[in-house]
């Protein structure tokens, strides 16, 4: 295997690992918050259903965390194994947030262990809920820190290069790079959004499968409300992200929008196909790109032709951008209709077809999440460290990456199937009706 | 003390933490599989589930801390070790991943599949073997530079008796540490059957441990005389370690003071581990890489140290809480409470 192949297989292995990890990681970031809200509502309203919801979620969460942790360990080591040249360089400047991330993991892992093993140990339920706060903070902080690393790759700063040497290194400045605020914000709210819609989808699915229990109704309504809030936030911060791109990585936005010539009053292009610079079958929204980029319909937007050919990302990221934005918009509409309809007592939101739409919303949001990451990462190509180091220069020279790729693919297959099977079995063996009955028996009647 | 030494000491300390906690975990899996095989099932299963389930994720973070920290403090290690270790470390990750996730799948999801228990037990021995190869490689002689890139010579590595003596050490250390800890834990849990069985394991594995240590000293002398000489310079650390080992074995033999035996065991490994580390100084990868030429810049080093101190202040009380709840809480240890989610 020559070194070109090593680069290729390293890319594929990184893509596979991250694409897999990010599903479990995102759930890992969002679910603790969702459990916390459910348990809090339960304590507030003194409603056993919400407490049970929190408890059942926590049980399922154990499984997704496990896969998140082991795949995270894999990607953490793979960064050094597959991109040694990059880590050698980046380690000098951006090691700080990576290191801080491990403390966030520690914090999360410790309190998660305690939380899981202390149900019913406290007289006062609120004390138990308090244990969940460090879990949620730890999980969100780990997302914050790793996203800062990723932001640094897009907008490196906090060092100078003099004669090929790194000098004048400022770790804090490197963390506070211009890509950081929008990236961190967008990643966090989309993680909460994804978790909320996945949970709503599960509740809707149970109802479709004939469990008319009040428990699922409460769960569905709670998570549709949360989903609405976080999807609106995602749209807002997504818009800020586009404005960041205009300023710092204009070729990424231009490629995502197939915007070839610099002009004023640029229109937004949805879907379509390109043949060179001819765009066919696309929907054009006049002035929308100028608004997205500058909040001004007549503003000038830089086109792709201003950049050297070998420094622009592949054009297919356009579809990734479209996928993400379409799904985001769809979920806002869906959840808004549901929440509004709930107050207005619209009947159709309880119909089967509407519930199926909610069920579809779960996987769709995960697809949006993947599309977003692929857009961000492929859109940075050919750079691994924007304007400083290309992906091809960063990769390992080891000869066995292809074999490792096969092994890791098998691993992810096992983990993916395993986690789904185990989760399914866990809830099927102990359905909610059963659990409510058990708890009533246990409590000897003082069930409210 | 300069920043380089401070950095490596902290990392070495966490690696030591990982070695001890992970050994308990790996060994427990093996003993469990073994007792299933010999028809004494479920003697150990309860102990394992009560002690190990709540902490497996924490164990993993110790490892993550070490590898993230070493790339942070010594970025050039990413280049040397990252390029050469692709295969052994990938195998280690895959096994860790299967083991860790099936842990959760099994303890929370479904129950008891025999084949799984055996795989789980076997993985507990293969992982330390795969990871210990990193220590072997750090002794030099297996990596050469070709066109400016480090290359690992697998043939030399796998035919060297030095490699295999370290593998034997890793495995017997895992089983010994685990058996001593679990003897103490089972005794505390007032589980006599388990205590008796584990005590026997502890005594059995003390033998191979002692033999492999001697074997390593002999091989090291041939393989890396510089390191061997520096090891001899710190002979007093090794003697303290050996004495602690003998007392541990004696206490277990006499069935008294399992708690003291456990403390001495940790001491024994701490002295040996640090004697090894100190004598390895200043090399991170003999003879290509030292602490000094791989060290990060000063600004980053200071930032990392500050982050470490702050993080540590957060960790200590939380770790204390875990120990209090799962290790020293009598009702929990005896399995009287069922508070699992
Ligand atoms: C549930 C997932 C999800 C949804 C519905 C959206 N996004 Fe997003 N988007 C992400 C999930 C995501 C992400 C996975 O979190 C990314 C990848 C990297 C990042 O920083 O965030 C991302 C990146 C990302 C970027 C690139 C940032 C960069 O490369 O630095 C832009 C411009 C947007 N988003 C804009 C939007 C807009 C205008 C949306 C309209 C609704 C939107 N996103 C919905
Ligand atoms: C290059 C990218 C990444 C690396 C190197 C990485 C590294 C890791 C590591 C080492 C772990 C295991 C920690 C442990 O032992 O507890 C982990 C788990 C985790 N990662 Fe990632 N990660 C990456 C991307 C992400 C992203 C983008 C997010 C969030 C948006 C994220 C969120 C998490 C969370 C929350 C966990 C804890 C496990 C869980 O709750 O599911 N990671 N990651
Ligand atoms: C320390 C942080 C990170 C490093 C060093 C890193 C490195 C890389 C590299 C080298 C590639 C290969 C580029 C290529 O395929 O051409 C890549 C691609 C990718 N990364 Fe990142 N990344 C980091 C953070 C993240 C995070 C946090 C995510 C989120 C999950 C992510 C998602 C992806 C995806 C989806 C790809 C595939 C895109 C492609 O084909 O190019 N990365 N990353």
TrEMBL record, chain A:
Q: Known Pfam families for this protein?
A: Cyt_bd_oxida_I
Stored InterPro entries? Cyt-d_ubiquinol_oxidase_su_1 (IPR002585)
Its BP terms in the Gene Ontology are: aerobic electron transport chain
Task: Give TM regions.
Answer: 20-41, 61-82, 94-117, 129-153, 184-208, 220-238, 316-341, 353-376, 403-424
**Entry keywords, A to Z:** Cell membrane, Electron transport, Heme, Iron, Membrane, Metal-binding, Transmembrane, Transmembrane helix, Transport
Is the Transcription keyword given for this protein? no
* Localization per Swiss-Prot or TrEMBL: Cell membrane
How does the entry describe its membrane topology?
Multi-pass membrane protein
* Gene Ontology MF annotations: electron transfer activity; heme binding; metal ion binding; oxidoreductase activity, acting on diphenols and related substances as donors, oxygen as acceptor
Got a GO cellular component term for this one? plasma membrane
Q: Which domain of life is it from?
A: Bacteria
Describe the family membership recorded for this protein in Swiss-Prot or TrEMBL.
Belongs to the cytochrome ubiquinol oxidase subunit 1 family.
Designated name of the protein: Cytochrome ubiquinol oxidase subunit I
UniProtKB/TrEMBL annotation, chain B:
Keywords of this entry: Cell membrane, Membrane, Transmembrane, Transmembrane helix
Coarse class of the primary localization is membrane
Transmembrane: is it a keyword of this entry? yes
Which Gene Ontology molecular-function terms are recorded?
Answer: electron transfer activity; oxidoreductase activity, acting on diphenols and related substances as donors, oxygen as acceptor
Q: Which GO BP terms sit in this record?
A: aerobic electron transport chain
User: What are the boundaries of the signal sequence?
Assistant: none
Q: Where are the transmembrane segments?
A: 12-34, 55-74, 80-98, 118-142, 162-185, 197-218, 234-253, 260-279, 299-323
Per the record, its GO cellular-component terms are: cytochrome complex; plasma membrane
Topology relative to the lipid bilayer, per the entry, is: Multi-pass membrane protein
Where located?
Cell membrane
What highest taxon heads this organism's lineage? Bacteria
What's a Pfam family this protein contains? Cyt_bd_oxida_II
Q: Which family does it belong to?
A: Belongs to the cytochrome ubiquinol oxidase subunit 2 family.
What is the name of the protein in this document? Answer: Cytochrome D ubiquinol oxidase subunit II
Name the source organism.
Heyndrickxia camelliae
């Amino acid at each position: 295997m020559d070194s070109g192949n090593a680069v290729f297989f390293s890319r594929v292995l990184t893509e596979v690992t991250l694409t897999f990890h990010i599903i479990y990681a995102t759930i890992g970031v969002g679910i603790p918050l969702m459990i916390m809200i459910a348990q809090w509502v339960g304590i507030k309203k003194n409603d056993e259903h919400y407490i049970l919801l929190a408890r059942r979620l926590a049980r399922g969460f154990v499984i997704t965390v496990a896969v998140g942790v082991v795949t995270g360990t894999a990607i953490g080591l793979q960064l050094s194994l597959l991109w040694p040249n990059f880590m050698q360089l980046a380690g000098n400047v951006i090691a700080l947030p990576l290191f801080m991330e491990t403390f966030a993991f520690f914090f999360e892992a410790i309190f998660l262990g305690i939380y899981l093993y202390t149900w019913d140990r406290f007289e006062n339920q609120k004390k138990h809920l308090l244990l969940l706060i460090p879990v949620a903070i730890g999980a969100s902080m780990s997302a914050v820190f790793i996203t800062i690393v990723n932001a640094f790759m897009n907008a490196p700063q906090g060092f100078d290069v003099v004669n090929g040497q790194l000098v004048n290194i400022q770790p804090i400045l490197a963390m506070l790079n211009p890509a950081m605020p929008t990236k961190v914000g967008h990643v966090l709210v989309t993680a909460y959004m994804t978790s909320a819609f996945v949970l709503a989808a599960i509740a809707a699915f149970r109802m479709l499968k004939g469990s008319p229990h009040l428990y699922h109704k409460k769960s569905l309504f709670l998570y549709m409300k949360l989903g609405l809030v976080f999807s609106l936030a995602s749209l807002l911060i997504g818009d800020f992200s586009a404005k960041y791109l205009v300023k710092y990585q204009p070729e990424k936005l231009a490629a995502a929008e197939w915007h070839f010539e610099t002009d004023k009053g640029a229109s937004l292009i949805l879907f379509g196909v390109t043949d060179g610079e001819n765009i066919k079958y696309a929907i054009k929204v006049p002035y929308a790109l100028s608004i997205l980029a500058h909040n001004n319909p007549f503003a000038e937007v830089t086109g792709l032709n201003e950049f050297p050919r070998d420094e622009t990302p592949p054009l297919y990221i356009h579809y990734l951008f479209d996928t993400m934005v379409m799904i985001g918009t769809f979920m806002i509409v869906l959840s808004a209709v549901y929440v509004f309809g709930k107050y207005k007592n619209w009947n159709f939101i309880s119909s089967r077809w509407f519930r199926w739409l909610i069920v579809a919303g779960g996987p769709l949001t995960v697809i949006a999440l993947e599309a977003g990451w692929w857009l961000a990462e492929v859109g940075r190509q050919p750079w691994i460290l924007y304007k400083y180091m290309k992906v091809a220069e960063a990769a390992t020279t080891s000869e066995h990456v292809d074999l490792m790729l096969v092994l890791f693919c098998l691993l992810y297959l096992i983990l993916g199937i395993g986690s789904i099977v185990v989760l399914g079995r866990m809830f099927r063996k102990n359905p909610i009706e059963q659990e409510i009955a058990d708890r009533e028996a246990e409590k000897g009647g003082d069930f409210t | 003390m300069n920043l380089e030494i401070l950095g490596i000491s902290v990392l070495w300390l966490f690696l030591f933490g990982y070695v001890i906690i992970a050994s308990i975990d790996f060994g427990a899996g093996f003993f469990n599989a073994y007792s299933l095989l010999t028809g004494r099932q479920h003697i150990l299963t309860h102990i394992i589930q009560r002690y190990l389930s709540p902490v497996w994720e924490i164990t993993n973070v110790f490892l993550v801390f070490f590898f993230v920290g070493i790339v942070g403090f010594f970025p050039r290690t990413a280049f040397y070790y990252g390029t050469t270790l692709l295969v052994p470390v990938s195998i280690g990750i895959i096994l860790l991943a299967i083991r860790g996730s099936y842990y959760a799948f099994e303890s929370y999801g479904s129950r008891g599949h025999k084949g799984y228990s055996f795989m789980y037990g076997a993985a507990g021995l293969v992982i330390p073997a795969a990871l210990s190869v990193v220590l072997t490689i750090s002794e030099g002689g297996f990596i050469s530079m070709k066109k400016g890139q480090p290359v690992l010579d697998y043939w030399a590595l796998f035919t060297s008796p030095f490699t295999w003596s370290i593998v034997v050490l890793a495995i017997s250390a895992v089983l010994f540490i685990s058996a001593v800890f679990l003897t103490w834990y089972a005794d505390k849990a007032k589980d006599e059957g388990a205590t008796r069985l584990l005590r026997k394991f502890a005594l059995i594995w003390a033998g191979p441990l002692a033999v492999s240590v001697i074997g390593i000293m002999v091989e090291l002398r041939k393989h890396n005389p510089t390191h061997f000489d520096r090891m001899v310079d710190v002979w007093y650390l090794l003697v303290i370690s050996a004495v602690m080992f003998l007392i541990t074995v004696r206490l277990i033999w006499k069935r008294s003071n399992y708690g003291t035996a456990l403390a001495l065991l940790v001491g024994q490994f701490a002295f040996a581990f640090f004697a090894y580390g100190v004598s390895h100084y200043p090399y991170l990868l003999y003879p290509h890489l030292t602490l000094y030429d791989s060290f990060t810049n000063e600004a980053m080093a200071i930032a990392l140290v500050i982050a470490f101190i702050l993080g540590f202040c957060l960790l200590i009380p939380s770790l204390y809480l875990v120990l209090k709840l799962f290790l020293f809480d009598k009702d929990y240890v005896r399995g009287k409470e069922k508070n699992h989610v």
